[in-house]
C-alpha cells in the first residue's frame, strides 16, 4: 500500500492475494443468468482499496488466528461493500457514472442488471458465512448476526436512507456523525468483529477494543472521504469529485471547514490507536491502517 507503513504493506499483500483468489472462487461464472454473473464479478473484482477485508484479516491475526480462517468473512464483507456501491451509484440514489476509475455497474450493463447484481452479491455474502469454511455453529451465527446488523435497518441501509433524506438540508455535526456511523462505520466495525469471531478465540476484552477501534476509524474514514471530495480531482479519486456539493449534502468540511475536519480525523485516529495500544507489535498492522485512513489521497 505504502512503504511508510511496512506492517500494513504485509497485511495488504496478504489480503489482496487471498481475497482475489477467494472472490474468484466464490463468485459465480456460469449460472442460469450469465449476464447477472458477469455483472456481479464486474462489481466485486474491479479493484478498490479492500480496507474492510484488511480489517478482517488484521483482526483475525490479532486474535491469534490463521489467515485462512479469515477468507470467508473477508469475502462476505467485501461482497456486502460491493453491493452497497452498486446500489449507491444507481440513478435513484447518488446517480454516479464512475467507480474505481471504471463505468459504474449500471453504466457498464444496465440499471435492472445492476439492481439484481447488488441483490445477489448481498445474498451470496450470507450464503458463504452459512456454508463455507470450517467454523463452529455458534461462530457462523455470530458472524451472520453482526453482518446483518451492520448492513440492515440499524446500520448501512438506515444510514443511506438518512443520507438521501438529508439532501438539500444543512445537518448538525452530531446528525452527520450519526448518519455516517450507520452508513460507513457499522460495516467497518463489523469487519473487525467478524475477523475476531473467525479466529474462534475467547477474548471478550479484545472484541470490545476492536469495536472501539472500528467506531473511531469508521468516522475518520468518512471525514477523509469528505475532505478528498473537495480537494482531489475525479481522475485521482476514481469517482466523480464534488458529488456531495452537486447533491447538496452536508459534509464535515462544509460544517467545520477543512482544517477543523482534518483535526477531527486526527483525533479519531489517535483514539483508535489508543484502543489497541496494549497489544504491542501484534496490533501494528491495524495501527498503521488507522494512520493510512486519514493520510490517503484517494
Describe the overall structure.
Helices cover 72% and strands 1% of the residues. It is mainly α and 298 residues long. It has a single domain, classed as Farnesyl Diphosphate Synthase. A two-stranded antiparallel ribbon has the order 1-2. Strand 1 and strand 2 form a beta hairpin. Helix 1 packs across helix 4, helix 3 packs antiparallel against helix 4 and helix 10 runs antiparallel to helix 14.
Poorly predicted segments: none
What is the arithmetic mean of pLDDT? Answer: 93
Principal-axes shape call: globular
Output the CATH class name: Mainly Alpha
- Computed structural class: mainly alpha
Tally of distinct domains = 1
Strand content: under 5%
Q: In which range does the helix fraction lie? A: over 70%
Which fold name corresponds to the CATH topology? Answer: Farnesyl Diphosphate Synthase
Largest sheet: 2 strands, antiparallel
| Count of strand segments | 2
> What's the CATH architecture?
Orthogonal Bundle
Number of helices: 15
What is the CATH superfamily label? Farnesyl Diphosphate Synthase
